[in-house]
Design brief:
This protein is α+β, with helices and mostly antiparallel strands. The protein contains four helices and seven strands, in the order βββαβαββαβα.
Length: 179
């Protein structure tokens, strides 16, 4: 589930460099995983990392309406009713400036059902969450995906730059001789 939080004025995120020594995040029995296509994250380990460094990941108010409802009706009804709305959801920057709900689907479904406008949440920017990918293939694919989205963002910003100041004429010489 993606939603945008990047403004045109925000800095362009950094390109990821492929680390050939990448070690996937190991899974232990009982660990919760979140598959997002080929990108599978070890949520249990990521949450432990975030909780141990809570000051780096402040709790924000996340608008429930900003999170698309992809399959909320397919969730277990008892689990949705029991979801703790005071517990922060977790969003990961999957593409530059775009955050995906990777933990808290039952909480968001409950919030929707009860008409709750916002839920506490934490945003995990790239590249922090990359270390919690569960396979080398997922990691390599993610680096390629991120960098392709970064190039697209840079092209879009370059395309929009002249439109930001329509009176600027960059194709004219600095001085025009008086006649």
């Amino acid at each position: 589930m993606l939603f945008s939080s990047i403004a045109n004025e925000s800095p362009v995120p950094a390109k990821l460099k492929l680390d050939r020594g990448f070690q996937p995040c190991p899974a232990e029995p009982g660990d919760e995983h979140y598959p997002n296509g080929i990108f599978e994250f070890n949520i249990t380990r990521l949450l432990a990392f975030v909780d141990a460094r809570a000051e780096r990941f402040p709790i924000e108010s996340i608008a429930v309406a900003d999170i698309p409802d992809y399959g909320g009706s397919q969730l277990n009804d008892d689990t949705v009713r029991a979801a703790d709305l005071s517990r922060p959801v977790l969003l990961a920057e999957i593409s530059p400036g775009l955050y995906n709900l990777i933990d808290g689907h039952h909480r968001i479904a409950r919030a929707r059902r009860e008409g709750v406008a916002s839920n506490p949440g934490r945003k995990i920017a790239c590249p922090v969450h990359v270390a919690f990918l569960t396979s080398t293939l997922a990691y390599e694919s993610y680096v390629e995906y991120w960098n392709s989205k970064l190039k697209a963002l840079q092209r879009e910003r370059a395309r929009r730059a002249p439109a930001a100041n329509p009176t600027a004429r960059h194709d004219l010489p600095w001085r025009i001789a008086k006649r």
